[in-house]
């Protein structure tokens, strides 16, 4: 009775147990290790080479021919076997993609070297003299060693009359019985001598062990098979394979690092770092076949998309790199900011190659702009950006900055400038160098530029000029840099064409890169009576024409005042305060529904949208003034600009006194209006900008 009851009970609960186990398996509730352990122990890439190599004789013995196969196998932690790329003929110089594989060091077990040789020649039989070269032959420190029996290996296939010898050094081969006192982990090579009938095959498997990874030199190893012949016949060939132990890593999501090199030291360049793209956005793939970063497995094998290892080879084609917005060519951008990529023998570098995530950058010891904090790829962040292991080296070819001149002052185009030649040497007299030139354009209040006939800055009256310098490095590379020269009060009525209003020449431009974000923005509107014509007066609650505003949320620039998705000119993502997109208000209009719009000019220099014109929302939840209009309650402000802010004796920001670094807290006593901008007067009487992108109210 008891037995029958037990069986009935099981018959009820067994379907429930099966159902629960099925859910666990299907939903992945089972330990995550099962998923990790399913990764193959050996990765041969997207186009594995897993066929033998034909090696042939030469001269009178050209009829000699052997088909040799040399490769590795290993099991992952689940016990699933995988195979490496086969070795190829040609020796050990250089590493070839077809013969290189990656071994997952967290997965690998039962590592085995396989070798076979088949007589494919006309000779029947053919004498053979084959030598398997183990990893410690070429690198005595290799952590991969012989792990088979002290009785020696056991060949299969045709073994009649075969003799086997073992070498520990000096090229002397002894039998297994003669080698019992040797340390078999230090075995260097194994020799097979005999005859092989036409069409017959000799095969051998050699078990290997993997020791600790003491340093990077123990991560890679090579294995070879040499074919010799008898009776003074010439040496045939060798077959070589390569493998690298690696760890699987996540896809690279950080930004490349912009650096300059002084001696052996690399330091980040802040003004370029804000332009640096992420590595993955430039990664070459099926969806991005022209990507600048061609990432391969160690040794050069094409990797499967989604596979990333810490030993990956990354080849960066510099002139294919795209900036953060994915549309602007990075090389074009930096060439117009006075920089080039690293110069070598008068030529700009075309590619950078990196071996292993973080290895190059760690060896380079990249420091943040403070000159003290090292960059640790994958964990270090800068100005909201996570940093990747890929670093790009730049040279500052043209060093020139915005300047201010009093009316009547002399203008020297080469004052406070510096230029490098093709050998990265400073040019002592740029005004006499035929490779250095400049052009001057007059900039009006709306940002329109007009060439100046005599190519000079007129200091007899107020005005703003754009001076573009050019430094010809070679026939294919000319670097440019444009700076603004403000005379007197500049364009008094409205700010000049830079992102900094006229008179504020000490305030550096902040490069703003609009992002491509497909998300839409629902903007509530400020209702006015329905009008479709531009207003010549300032509408109630709107900012005065000439006011500089910036976006605090994601906004769009439109062709017309009635917003339609099809008429979007540009998109500006929500950004950190110092990177918010800026505009100058040039007029007003109303949508068909009566919503007030600002007619604006984009003043985000260094971006693709610079100088574009159109309409943006006037809703103050999305757009506010760039300049403070009130004193802070505690009369404290904090410098937030990376380059700090300058203090001046005059409210028009002339007669510079000093520079306050980022993070400096200052006491202010007065807000002063200057044209359409504002200044803070410090407690000591000096003046600083009240630009919200450069300072913030309170103890920040």
UniProtKB/TrEMBL annotation:
<feature type="region of interest" description="Disordered">
    <location>
        <begin position="486"/>
        <end position="540"/>
    </location>
</feature>
<feature type="compositionally biased region" description="Low complexity">
    <location>
        <begin position="486"/>
        <end position="506"/>
    </location>
</feature>
<dbReference type="InterPro" id="IPR044081">
    <property type="entry name" value="DUF5776"/>
</dbReference>
<feature type="compositionally biased region" description="Low complexity">
    <location>
        <begin position="513"/>
        <end position="540"/>
    </location>
</feature>
<dbReference type="Pfam" id="PF19087">
    <property type="entry name" value="DUF5776"/>
</dbReference>
<keyword id="KW-0472">Membrane</keyword>
<keyword id="KW-0812">Transmembrane</keyword>
<feature type="domain" description="DUF5776">
    <location>
        <begin position="627"/>
        <end position="695"/>
    </location>
</feature>
<keyword id="KW-1133">Transmembrane helix</keyword>
<feature type="transmembrane region" description="Helical">
    <location>
        <begin position="12"/>
        <end position="30"/>
    </location>
</feature>
<protein>
    <recommendedName>
        <fullName>DUF5776 domain-containing protein</fullName>
    </recommendedName>
</protein>
